[in-house]
Specification:
Helix 6 runs antiparallel to helix 8. This protein has 14 helices and 16 strands. A 4-stranded mixed beta sheet has the order 1-5-6-7, with no helix packed on it. The chain is of the alpha+beta class and about 500 residues long. The protein has 3 domains: about 250 residues, no CATH class; about 60 residues, no CATH class; about 70 residues, no CATH class.
């Protein structure tokens, strides 16, 4: 543990830090330790690692459930749009105050990052892995002899094998108050995982800049661990599984009709009466069974199952031998309880319940027909995209600094203007934009006669057509040019 593996991205000048006794809030599930603590206590404090591993395994297990898998596929398909012509993500630098040459270099390196991830082909799987586990790790592989060549390879790291650690160094001031002096972050990698005993707590210490780590952003504040977006679905999935299994058992046991044979045994003693009943039962009982291994059919009379007929003795003085029919279970087609838990599962995953209906069509109509659930789902997808975008930004930052395209200080200055744009479903986007424009033009036609009396032209442009100041200036220039070229007629305005 004395040596550390990987590389560090250094600053030209470290910023001055003010004295504080409060440790910065960590939203990435890092393990906070005091300087001087030993590794065994770090990794198995109160069984945190074991519980974390079990939780991740539970996430992956419930993701295999058919209904849960269907909901996850809806989420991933909405977030990552596949296209044969365009890559799923692109870089937007419109808000960054950078020169054209620098922007071109940054876009070139971003394309290299997308290529290293093979995101055009594996984007769906990568996003799904991050969504299910609630976190994702990538190791940035570089040539230590030639770091200016940038990142050579990005290798996926199983989240069960790596942990982020924060080493917090505190000192007491003259008043005896512990002040946070320094915080060192690094990762611990163990190829065997951390779900073993506390005695097996060895691992490789890796620098912070060598790992790209993106958590879900959901933190269990009581335990300080990262949660997946599937965490809310753990209980509904288990409840749905129990209800489905119970339904199958009930139908298997109650669905078939069974007969009740009342056999008249007269005044026979108990032992002879039982023997007589067995003889009659074996004589008329026919239990045909299928042998799956051999493909043969045989008659097995060795044991009685709960789905077979009932044979009951009846003493002399009764109604004699009688055969009656026991009706099968009723209301076997009702699955309201199962549907309830299916809906509860979809609600826990923030997926519109309407998508459960297999026969429900999708309306490609006006924007006013969009349901509130679909609108909430769209906003949820946007939040997921924004969280996942940190994967590209982290790798891009390292790539730009290694290749001396920018410095750490410069990146911190313009990173907030660097945006990741995701490819939209072009057909639906076109329909939506068309409906929005049609609605705005209809409003413009209704308000046209009031322009110049109650509304100004500038107000209409900004509040009805929703044009920006830049759009208004550009439109005026283009209209003036087209009028001068004779492409459009120069009509006199009434206002």
């Amino acid at each position: 543990m004395a040596q550390i593996f990987g590389f560090n991205v250094t600053r030209l000048k470290e910023p001055k830090k003010s004295d504080t006794f409060i440790v910065p809030d960590s939203q990435d599930g890092a393990y906070d330790i005091a300087s001087g603590g030993f590794f065994g206590n770090i990794m198995d404090l109160d069984g945190r690692d074991k519980n974390n591993i079990e939780t991740i395994e539970n996430y992956r297990e419930i993701a295999k459930h058919p209904e849960c898998d269907l909901a996850i596929e809806d989420i991933v398909n909405e977030a990552i749009v596949a296209s044969e012509l365009n890559q799923p993500v692109s870089l937007n630098l419109d808000g960054a105050d950078l020169g054209k040459a620098v922007k071109d270099k940054i876009r070139e390196e971003f394309d290299a990052v997308v290529s290293l991830l093979d995101f055009s082909n594996k984007g769906h799987e990568i996003f799904r892995q991050w969504y299910v586990d609630g976190r994702i790790y990538y190791h940035k592989v570089i040539d230590n002899k030639a770091p200016k060549k940038g990142i050579n390879e990005l290798r996926f790291v199983d989240c069960k094998k790596v942990r982020k650690v924060r080493d917090i160094q505190k000192e007491k001031n003259r008043d005896g108050v512990e002040i946070v002096k320094n915080i060192t972050e690094y990762y611990i990698y163990n190829d065997k995982g951390f779900d073993l005993s506390a005695t097996n707590s060895q691992g490789l210490k890796i620098t912070k800049d060598s790992i790209a780590y993106v958590p879900s952003g959901l933190i269990d504040q009581s335990k300080g661990v990262v949660q997946s977006y599937l965490h809310k679905a753990l209980k509904p999935v288990n409840q749905l599984t129990i209800m489905e299994d119970s339904l199958v058992i009930y139908r298997m046991t109650r669905a078939p009709e069974r007969r009740i044979f009342y056999i008249d045994v007269g005044n026979l003693p108990k032992s002879k009466a039982e023997q007589y009943l067995n003889d009659v039962m074996n004589k008329y009982r026919n239990k045909v069974v299928y042998n799956a291994s051999t493909g043969s059919v045989s008659n097995d009379r060795n044991q009685m199952s709960m789905m077979e007929d009932f044979w009951l003795p009846r003493r002399e003085g009764g109604r004699g031998t009688e055969i009656d029919t026991l009706a099968g279970g009723e209301n076997l087609g009702q699955i309201d309880d199962v549907e309830y838990f299916r809906r509860k599962l979809y609600s826990a995953l923030n997926v519109p319940v309407s998508r459960l209906e297999s026969d429900a069509g999708f309306t490609l109509g006006r924007d006013s027909e969009i349901t509130r659930d679909e609108l909430k789902f769209s906003k949820f997808i946007q939040r997921l995209r924004k969280k996942f975008a940190f994967l590209f930004l982290d790798i891009l930052k390292t790539q730009l600094i290694l290749k001396n395209i920018t410095t750490t200080e410069d990146w911190e200055a313009f990173k907030e203007y660097v945006q990741i744009d995701y490819l939209q479903d072009s057909f639906f986007t076109e329909l939506k934009d068309g409906e929005i424009l049609t609605t705005r033009l209809d409003m413009l036609g209704s308000i046209q006669e009031h322009i110049g009396t109650y509304f100004s032209k500038a107000w209409v442009q900004k509040n009805v057509l929703h044009l920006t100041d830049e759009d208004i200036v550009e439109m005026k220039e283009q209209i003036a040019k087209e009028k001068s070229d004779g492409e459009i007629e120069d009509e006199e305005e009434d206002y």
